[in-house]
Structure formats: C-alpha cells, structure tokens
Amino acid sequence: VQFVESGGGLVQPGGSLRLSCVVDGATLDDYAIGWFRRAPGKELEGVSCVSRSGSGTYYAESVEGRFSVSRDDAKNAVYLQMNELKPEDTAVYYCVTANMYPCFDIDHWGKGILVTVSS
C-alpha cells in the first residue's frame, strides 16, 4: 500500500492549506481514513477521521471548526482542508487508514508531509 500525500508547505498564520492523500494498493471503502500529526517536540496527535460511509467525522478539539475532512472513494483519496492556520498547527501530517472509527487500529501510515505555519 502506498500513499501519495501532497499540499503541504509554508503558510502564514491565518492562511489555508488543503492536504490530499491518494492511496494506491488498498480499497479505501474498506477503511476509516484520516490524519494524524506530530509537532516538533510533541506526541503524535489524531487530528481528524472520516468513517467508512463518510457520514461520521471526528476532529481533535484543537482543530474543531477550522479543519474539514472529506473522502472520495472513487479517487481513493482523502482530503484535509485547513483554515485559520496557527503556528501551533506546524507539524508533519500523516495520512492513515484504520480498521475502526474514529481511526483506531491503524492499518497503514503515509510517509508524512510537512506543514509550517509562520510569518
């Protein structure tokens, strides 16, 4: 299973980014799918997850109201729209597939993509 993560980079505080993750080698509708992140010097954090059906979405309290997750099973893809970005959102973001919602029992991890929020 391979993940192609894109959309990261440097953005100013208050800006937006959209992360994309295309999965090759797995049928996405078998999984919940979402995003984790690891900020410098901090522990891994579950950011967001969308259920297999797409009807359920989970957000960490730290991103609630600013981030939006979506999935497109026809494209084998998951997206994370990140608005009102803050410096504390700086992290490596990882796309995951999971056997349980909201993204427990992780099955596969992407390699990660860096998001830097700085002026």
Write the layout of secondary structure elements.
Blueprint: E1 2-6, E2 9-11, E3 17-24, E4 32-38, E5 44-50, E6 57-59, E7 67-72, E8 77-82, E9 91-100, E10 104-109, E11 113-117
Parallel strand pairs: 2-11
Antiparallel strand pairs: 1-3, 3-8, 4-5, 4-9, 5-6, 7-8, 9-10, 9-11
How is this structure best described in words?
This protein is mainly beta and 119 residues long. The protein has no helices and eleven strands. It has strands at 2-6, 9-11, 17-24, 32-38, 44-50, 57-59, 67-72, 77-82, 91-100, 104-109, 113-117. The strands form two sheets. Strands 2, 4, 5, 6, 9, 10 and 11 form a seven-stranded mixed sheet that branches. A four-stranded antiparallel sheet has the order 1-3-8-7, with no helix packed on it. The protein is globular. It starts with a strand and ends with a strand.
What's the gist of this structure?
This protein has no helices and eleven strands. With 119 residues, it is an all-beta fold.
List keywords for this structure.
mainly beta; 4-stranded antiparallel beta sheet; 7-stranded mixed beta sheet; 11 strands; 119 residues; globular
Average pLDDT confidence is 95
| Rg (C-alpha, Å) | 13 Å
Envelope shape: globular
Helix share, percent: under 10%
Summed up, the helix count is 0
Number of beta-strand segments:
11
Strand content: over 45%
**Which spans have pLDDT < 50 for at least 5 consecutive residues?**
none
Main sheet summary: 7 strands, mixed
Element-level helix/strand string: EEEEEEEEEEE
Structural class: mainly beta
Please give the alpha-carbon distance between the first and last residues: 36 Å
